[in-house]
Design a protein that fits this description.
alpha/beta, Double Stranded RNA Binding Domain, 6-stranded mixed sheet, 3-stranded mixed sheet, 6 helices
Length: about 230
């Protein structure tokens, strides 16, 4: 069984349009039906004010601009799953909250920018996070008592004139058990928790991988980055 989910195709050459496969789960699929006349159940998972902890890391001596496009800031996922239930998951506010906290801890200085092609003079580069894919599985689909969430972000690095220098995929996963522990919030609570854990996992992945990237090391050392050298990424 494969993940269902929402994907975002990037503009650009063939390598950038390639759809990297998400994590696959093998499980027995249970079929369930909603007890609603003429239509399936509708469940909205509202934007939850997730309070992501500040990473306890030594920040990198880089001044970074951060660009959030409308897709990231207003991301909403809608789906009707195999048991007939309809889901709406709102992630936009938490996307920006996550990366504000992450980049604020990772870099010595961060500034939100509104234009990738015209960055201010006091930054060295611009990072744009993109939510490429969100997917989830319910306990009925997994044949378990867990909700599972998979998220794929991509971080794109630009110079201050808008030339793309590098990009890095960040794959993340989270799961939360349904049942008595989450009874107060019904079935939205476990899915919110699983999403929260997946987003924290994405932050952890970025913390581990970004400081080792040659483009980040070049910025730290004040070196010029050649965009042509990153065509094979």
């Amino acid at each position: 069984m494969t993940w269902r989910g929402k994907s975002r195709a990037r503009q650009g050459d063939a390598k950038n349009r390639h759809n990297y496969p998400m994590i696959r789960i093998l499980a027995v699929k249970l079929v369930a039906f909603c007890a609603v006349v003429s239509s399936g159940c509708g469940t909205t998972v509202p934007a939850m004010n997730m309070e992501f902890p500040t990473p306890l890391i030594e920040n990198l001596p880089i001044s970074i601009g951060v660009y959030y496009d409308d897709d990231l800031r207003n991301f909403t996922y809608n789906e009707t799953v195999s048991d007939g239930s309809s889901w709406t998951i709102e992630l936009g506010q938490n996307n920006t909250r996550l990366f504000d906290r992450l980049f604020g801890a990772m870099f010595s200085r961060t500034t939100r920018v509104d234009d990738i092609e015209n960055g201010p003079d006091d930054i060295q580069a611009i990072i744009q996070p993109i939510l490429e894919e969100y997917a989830f599985l319910t306990p009925n689909e997994l044949g378990s008592r867990f909700y599972a969430v998979s998220i794929r972000y991509r971080l794109i690095l630009y110079d201050t004139a808008g030339t793309e220098l590098a990009d890095w995929p960040i794959n993340a996963y989270g799961q939360s058990r349904s049942g008595i522990f989450n009874a107060g919030r019904g079935k939205t609570g476990p899915l919110q928790n699983a999403t929260d854990l997946a987003m924290r996992d994405a932050a952890a992945g970025a913390i581990v991988s970004l400081p080792t990237q040659p483009e980040i090391l070049a910025l730290i050392n004040g070196e010029q980055i050649n965009a042509e050298s990153n065509d094979n990424q």
